[in-house]
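Reading a protein record of the kind used here takes only a little practice. Think of the row as the fold of the chain written in a discrete alphabet. A record is reproduced here so that you can trace the correspondence yourselves:
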Amino acid sequence: MNSGLSPIEYEITSEIDSNQLLEFNREIAKEVRLSGSTEELRAFEYAKRTLESYGLSTKLTFHDAYISIPGRASLVAGNQDIACITHSMAPSTDVEGLKGTAVYIGEFSEEKLKLVDGRIAVVESIALPEILLQLEASKAIGAIFINGPYTHEMIVSTVWGSPSEENIDSMPKIPVVSINNENGLTLRSLIDQGENDVIFHARVDTKWIKTPTLTAEIRGNEEADHFVLFSGHIDSWHYGAMDNGSANATMMEVARVLSKFQKNMKRSLRFAFWSGHSHGRYSGSQNYCDSHWEEIHENCVMHFYVDSVGGKGATILSESNCMAETKEIAAEYVWKIAEQKFIGSRYGRYADQSFWGAGVPSLFMGMSEQPISADPNSKMVFELFKGKKAGGFGWWWHTVEDTIDKIDPVNLKRDCEIYALSIYKVLMDPIVPINQVAAVKELKKLVDEYWAISSDHIDLGLTQSRLSSLETMLNEIYQHKTKDTLPKEDLKELNQSLIRISRILVPLNYVENDIFDHDPANKTCPLPALSSIRKMSEVEKNSHEFHLIQTSLRRKINKVNYSLKRAIEETEALRIMVNKDQIK
């Protein structure tokens, strides 16, 4: 469609080649790429050679990562063998296997947890770590998940990346297997007939091994130390043509095309290819952040993530992940390329988003999704990804069916065009396109919602006042800032200030714990420091629990207010500089 592209944008999209994308995709997806495997390393080396052929400097490094590869699994119920798979980070059973009484609870709900004590829970769901945690807490001894028509490979730990001494005890403690719908009906029938004694064996190979990370860079010319990070994982479930071969192809094609425009780039573009996404719960990006925290904190302008693009039938582009401050970029190019109005979706805690503690704004996770339909093959995937119109990446996601025939070359080119143009904008705009006003407005809305349910328990007046002051000052700056009115040196300082403001606002909105740590892969609440306000509103006023929450909240409010004070101080200095230049 390419509606309203500028000449340079049109030139970039014209350079993107669907045949080249498919060639990259086929080459990456010709082997199964388990984390740390020889096959995965061959894919890394192919990407390295390819990037170097376009003039990029590359670096292939290795680090120790906690990697978990599912092995053989078997399930017997009522003397019937039932095909199953097990999952990454689940514990293995001992030689005798896990014997127990199966209880069918159907679709998961907290009310049904009372049924699982001392039993093996049978749940209608893809194997999700948050469900497993609750089953463990309710003293289930094992779990059997009924996934739908296909079994979906999953990682069932909430520990982000490789575990530490602080969180190793949070690793899964009960064995897990998954079965498909057909076998689920068999198991349910046996349970209904009273043949509910089952035994399953599961082997999971979990250990520390060396895994690769590949980085490459196109160097900018004016603010070269500032860089955009564009990342995706190479490891895969099965052949992983969509997840994540199509994304790797997109990264290499963006490198090929944008390397031709290097002379125009104000900022640098850094590519990062991870291992340990599928089998290490994002251990590659976690390790990279931990190993380069200060550089990322000080110089990374924005993180673009790419996963599972170009799928057949993937026609919904309006609901990919964004932050409030990065949404405008997505909206511009989703409209220009696909003529769809972008509404965006707030990030959850997934997809190699290891850089929020370092304060880095993020844009995209995947790009295009399947429309929600009555397709029974996709029911479970829809339940996991369901948005307003979007229903995830396809029924073949995380299955043996993720093969090259699931890639549509037209969709792959379209998705690549949006990534290329969005990234190029952040590399090229004289003023980095981070809309801090939108970030503050989102925080204001959240504080208003929290105070509406807690005004007689907690005082958020100072929080609201500081957010309003911050919004006013930022609005003034954004109204005045233009590339034509600021000297080059002041433009650099303005950009540095906008980055420093992100270092305050991103963790405030997305990080629950220490900015140097990594929150677990659980469902997250916006502005997490204040999320316990909801819990306080549900307990009896002046009860023991009420006062415990209230005491904790006072400290967390201090944290929020002090963060906002720092943001105001940074913004005030920026406002003075901008106004000075306006007077000139």
Remarks:
- The two ends are 44 Å apart (CA to CA).
